[in-house]
Amino acid sequence: MLIDIHCHLTAPEFRGRLAEIIEDSVRAGVKAMITSGLGYEDGIKALSISDYRRVYPSIGVRPYELKGYEEVINLILKESKRILAIGEVGLDYWYVRDEEERAEQERIFKEFIELAKELDIPLIVHSRSAGKYALEILLEMKADRVIMHAFDGAAKHALKGVERGYMFSIPPSIARSMQKMKLVKRVPLESLLLESDSPVLAPEPGQINYPKNILISAKWISKVKGIPLEKVIEVTGSNALRVLGLVL
Ligand SMILES: [Zn+2]
Q: Between β-strands 192-194 and 146-149, what pairing exists: parallel, antiparallel or unpaired?
């Protein structure tokens, strides 16, 4: 089944047309969407729009907007039974170049990893221009139930995560990314998931992205791996259910 493991349905781009977008996704075959609320207020919104039928919440922070992250930790603790995952959390070395700020990101990332382990909840990891470093930390801390979202690093680093059972979710922007195609070629289907990361990471730059576009991710995985589309949808769907501990 088609499961969008990571999107942002609370984004301003979707304001006023959320019901329509969810309906549209369901009509396109999407069975579940995991919407990620980033920061305290957006986290509350993600909880409030979740119907636990089609839309499920995860809560995290942007790695480059960490002010007030303690409140987010408290929210996760309070709502740990209602959220499906922590995330996204992680490192962003593309936005953040300053060494001290990077060290701060790392410290807070480790707090979230600890929290995910404590709660035995999956972790959705952002690692822009920092894939190798994020994986090193996760492996060192023996994190499991890890979803590396829109991983932009080298496949050889990704494979170290694969060995430990980490999953890699593929956005529709694979349509314009040689790096993602290479990643998909090397990472086994059993370790792949579909994500839209909507409203961003559309197949065409500058477009608004939608959850239904995970079908585009699936088509590219099918093409790159030479596997039937149906099989990609079936295996990525059961991968998603397994890592999330979700029964549909
Ligand atoms: Zn995201």
A: unpaired
Mean pLDDT of 184-205: 98
How far is the centre of ligand 1, averaged over its atoms, from the C-alpha of 187 (Å)?
Answer: 21
Using pLDDT thresholds of 50, 70 and 90, give the confidence band for residue 122: very high
Are 17 and 5 spatial neighbours (Cβ–Cβ below 8 Å)?
no
Distance from Cα 202 to the centre of ligand 1, integer Å: 12
User: Ligand 1: distance of its center to the CA of 235 in Å?
Assistant: 22
Give 229 Cα–ligand 1 centroid separation in angstroms: 25
Backbone angles phi, psi at 67, to 5 degrees: -60, 130
b/e string for 182-215 if b means 16 or more Cβ within 10 A?
A: ebbeebebebbbbbbbbbbbbbeeeeebbbbbbb
pLDDT band of 28, cuts 50, 70, 90: very high
Give the pLDDT band of residue 161 (cuts 50, 70, 90).
very high
Distance between CA atoms of 100 and 107, rounded to whole angstroms? 11
How far does the centroid of ligand 1 lie from the alpha carbon of residue 89, in Å? 9
Query: Cβ distance 188 to 212 under 8 Å?
Result: no
